[in-house]
Amino acid sequence: MKNSVLVTGGAGFIGSHTAVELINAGFDVIIVDNFSNSDMAAVEGVRTITGADVPFEKADCNSREELEKIFKKYKFDSVIHFAASKAVGESVEKPLMYYRNNVGSFVNILELMNKHGVSNMVFSSSATVYGQPDVLPATEQTPRKPATSPYGNTKQICEDILRDSVAACEGMKGIALRYFNPIGAHPSALIGELPKGVPNNLVPFITQTAAGIRKELSVFGDDYNTPDGSCLRDYIDVVDLAKAHVVAVRRMIENKGKAKYEIFNIGTGVPVSVLELVNTFQKVNNVKVPYKIVGRRQGDVEAVWADTKLANTELGWKAERSLDETLAAAWSWEKRVRNIK
Ligand code: UFG
Questions:
Q1: Under a CB-based contact definition with an 8 Å cutoff, are residues 65 and 33 in contact?
Q2: First CA to last CA across the chain, in angstroms?
Q3: What is the biggest distance separating any 2 CA atoms in the chain, rounded to whole angstroms?
Q4: Ligand 1 in contact with 90 (CB < 6 A)?
Q5: What residue's CA is closest to ligand 1, atom 31?
Q6: Which of 43, 10, 22, 33 is nearest to 190 (CA)?
Q7: Which has the closest alpha carbon to 337: 92, 41, 52, 111?
């Protein structure tokens, strides 16, 4: 029998790529999304890439009733929970919305998993839990820093909720994947990142600037204590990241885990500066990205990148795609969306 996975937020950027990789790896997938930051085109993209008639349910994970209908309608043994809000600034303005969307919905799902005997949960966590680590690269043992935004706090709280609920429920397992900076798009250019409004994140801002939608990129600070003065991050290709979820689900199904609850960093292990990223994008795609240096963005950490040893050795997962490939895919996607030849 094929294993089935419920993917909440499966029409989103990381969710849609993960749905594709799960199907490619032989899993059945059910996508749930409320389209708060996505639309049906992503589901169609998943269907076109895989040739699979992927079931889709429009539902809000905040609604236990809507969710329970899905738990009754389909049989699945694993859930990957992407559905969450993710804008740091917005979370400062609307903290309760973030606690409801990110924490409330997670509790709903875990309760329903307990009730319906669904065992395995992969949770989308973030390197944001490390804040500015005292020692780099960050390992999974690096202490978490007090969150600087409600968004960041929801990631820490949900990790703890998963740890505690897994410990209390026999047969249940959980894996938290701490993503570094996910970027790129599927090589088919049929799915990718399409933020609504002005992008907060670097790569969508770059692709939109290259496409002429934004006048110029603001580089937030060149006076950090880094080689070129701009911040360092660990940019992970979204297809590589998607594959990490497949491996995590398999690990739980096959009982390969060392513990009922595990945490893995998902990154490349290679720090890249903002200026390096902009220059690589321009070179690889032979396109101009006008930019100016402006002041630091409040809340930004200077540098963070992953120690990926645990994911490499324990999960048997490693980032494979080069930054050039990833930035070429990001540009192909933007060009397709904007009808640029
Ligand atoms: N940056 C710019 N100009 C922009 C956008 C970003 O210079 O227009 C810089 C930022 O200052 C930072 C780097 O590009 O140095 C990366 O910024 P992103 O916003 O793309 O990513 P962050 O590292 O800030 O964000 C990541 C995750 C978030 C998470 C956050 C917490 O994408 O989900 O870490 O630190 F909340």
A1: no
A2: 44
A3: 56
A4: no
A5: 128
A6: 43
A7: 41
Name residue, tokens 């739980």.
252
Residue 74, classified by CB atoms within 10 Å of its CB into exposed (0-12), middle (13-18) or buried (19+), is: middle
Our answer to whether residue 291 is catalytic in this structure is no
Which residue CA neighbors atom 10 of ligand 1 most closely?
220
Counting atoms of ligand 1 from 1, which one is nearest the CA of 297?
11
CA distance 260 to 278: 41
Tokens representing 37? 């930051």
CB 150, CB 95: distance < 8 Å? yes
The model carries a pTM of 0.98
Q: Which of 151, 224, 261, 291 is catalytic?
A: 151
Q: What is the pLDDT of residues 207-222, one digit of tens each?
A: 999 999 999 999 999 9
Residue with tokens 């969450």: 84
Integer Cα distance of 40 and 53 in angstroms:
14
Which H or E element spans position 149? none
Residue 279 in contact with ligand 1 by CB distance below 6 A: no
DSSP 30-45: EEEE--SS--HHHHHH
pLDDT in tens, 151-186: 999 999 999 999 999 999 999 999 999 999 999 999
**Phi first, then psi: what are they for 38, rounded to 5°?**
-160, 180
Question: Which among 14, 277, 297 is the best mutation to test ligand 1's pocket, defined by most ligand atoms within 8 Å of the CB?
Answer: 297
Nearest to 268, CA basis, from 315, 313, 319, 314 = 319
